[in-house]
Amino acid sequence: MEYLDGISVRDAEPVLAESGADRHGLACVLLGTVLRQVMLEGTFHADPHPGNVLVLRDGQLALIDFGSVGRLDPLQQAALRRLLLAVARRNPAELHDSLLDLAQASRPAAGDDLLERTLAQFIAQHLGLGMVPDIAMFNTLFRLLTDFGLVFPPVIATVFRAMITLEGTLARLAPGFQIVEETRKMAASWLGEVLGPASLREAATDEVLGLLPVLRRLPRRFDRITTSLERGTLTTSVRLLADERDRQFVRSMAGRAVLAFLGAAFGIISVMLIGARGGPLLLPAAAGTGGTSLFHVFGYAGLFFSLVLILRVIIAITREGI
Ligand SMILES: Nc1ncnc2c1ncn2[C@@H]1O[C@H](COP(=O)(O)OP(=O)(O)O)[C@@H](O)[C@H]1O
Ligand SMILES: [Mg+2]
Q: What percent of the chain has pLDDT over 90?
């Protein structure tokens, strides 16, 4: 809340014309500041009209009048950064994903592919080579998305209103200033910082380049899932054992468990039978032996049966490795 010694951009035309200031440079600084507020800081001046931007005596710019301020959460900032990069690279798939990130209702009614194709058309119509896009194209874009059932939080509209206001201020500061083009250049340099062009070029061998199309889609899918998780909108519908193979697997596992249990039970009972004394005699006791009782016969038969069962389970396990 300090006094700023300067005149507003609305009245600064004579001063700017006389002083021979670097008007394009000043406009770039102002644009960079607002973009930084939106993309990185999350709190931005929502009304940067010419009356609210001062040119100070020392040639610096100053923002006043914070009566209208927008606040973005980190997810919205990230989505806006991606939107900026998508526009900078004229990439419909990235544009599509960043817009879905921004939207409140995240599923377009008419399907992803159609939306992506529509966005590709939009890029061709508004961001083609040699075209001079202005911020108003985002109005067209948002109207188009409304038809797809996408709804955006009010603060996103505030961002684009602020950018349209800023466009007017920039035009006063530096006539002919191309806001979208300059934004694209800034985005490219920011992107360059992130990727580190030198290291990237070294690493980009033919094999890696061949993998890129696959790799590029992976994070998109993954990112969408994690974002849904963060927002709590991820819904899954899983029917337990819906697949026939799963049922088969469970059946065979249960079958084996029953066999193994029976085998062990027979084994234990058989051993007890063999060790038991008494019982009806089948063969008369010869000299030196206790004779063969019915218990023994059942015992040995049971032991054999138990061995067969356990062997079956062991063979099944070793054959299938489960
Ligand atoms: N910090 C300041 N230093 C110098 N002048 C200021 C400052 N704040 C406001 N002013 C002057 O007051 C005018 C109106 O202030 P502002 O905050 O823009 O209110 P409003 O909401 O009416 O636009 C500005 O155009 C400017 O001339
Ligand atoms: Mg004001």
A: 28
